[in-house]
Amino acid sequence: MITYKDSGVNIEEGYRSVKLIQEYAKKTMGEYVLNGLGSFAGMVELPSGYEKPVLVSGTDGVGTKIDIACKKRKYDTVGIDCVAMCVNDILCHGAKPLFFLDYIACGKLEAEVSSDLVKGVSDGCIQSDCSLIGGETAEMPGFYKDGDYDVAGFAVGIVDKDKIINGKNIKPGDKLIGIKSSGIHSNGYSLVRKLFKDLDEEFLGKPLWETLLVPTKIYVKPVLKLIEKYEIKGMSHITGGGFIENVPRMFSKDGLTAVINKDSYPLPEIFEKMIELGVDKDHMYNTFNMGIGFILCVNEKDVDSILRDLLEMGEAAYEIGSVISGGEGVCLK
């Protein structure tokens, strides 16, 4: 008799994986979640207090950063990356994350590995105050190699229609505040993996792979506090495409340019190392966050207060530039 297990799919391991995962998902459940894991779909009611509630969604993955996690068998942080990539994006429009769904694919399921991956997702959801209400774990032997994993996710948030941040009020003279990144975050790892062949070489007093696996910073809680207090005119999450692609995305109309002063903040050592290894510095601003993971566009009069508030919240932030007339999008100097 031929069974599903003979084809490479172990149903029993899948059951064990779900059991291990449930405890992590349970930690994230907020008051608006109507059911737990195990149903065919997750259900979340809309919070009260929104006059014209708008749902804001985003989806993303970890990319090839997960290859380093698989090689070092360190799986419990890349789930944070997955959440961060999604919730930071929807945050750019002023949305508060409500819930998250994850997708894990592999060649051969190991319950402990999938549990570690979801632990990271759970940690990311806790950091962003959203609920992990469901997901999918797909075992696909013959498509993925044994030991290979991939992680993606989907976030939904909420914002009042009248409070959507879309850049419509940005004008020349507005200032740009950059909030420090935690490292490379989750973009550019195809180049990172090409540059760094020895993951165990010492870097800043520890194995290099530990620096490469530092999870993406989640900006939700501090930025939502700022939105309650100040007029935040536009925001950019600096992901793939770096400054060049992402900064202009905060503008809703043509005729504006963000001028970024590259010397206005310290460049993290990992990016300095890449430059030493031969990567063109100017090119890097089109690929990496270069030490700034999130950018706010604000009124000039609010800059000092916002920087002070961010510092009190434990966030390193800098005035990194301003908006001028002209249609170049972004200018690095």
TrEMBL record:
What family, per the record?
Belongs to the AIR synthase family.
Name the chain's protein. Answer: Phosphoribosylformylglycinamidine cyclo-ligase
UniProt KW keywords: ATP-binding, Cytoplasm, Ligase, Nucleotide-binding, Purine biosynthesis
Q: Does the keyword Cytoplasm apply?
A: yes
Q: What is its EC number?
A: 6.3.3.1
Tell me the GO molecular function terms.
phosphoribosylformylglycinamidine cyclo-ligase activity
Gene name of the record: purM
Query: According to its UniProt record, where is this protein located?
Result: Cytoplasm
What pathway annotation does it carry? Purine metabolism; IMP biosynthesis via de novo pathway; 5-amino-1-(5-phospho-D-ribosyl)imidazole from N(2)-formyl-N(1)-(5-phospho-D-ribosyl)glycinamide: step 2/2
According to UniProt, the reaction catalysed is: 2-formamido-N(1)-(5-O-phospho-beta-D-ribosyl)acetamidine + ATP = 5-amino-1-(5-phospho-beta-D-ribosyl)imidazole + ADP + phosphate + H(+)
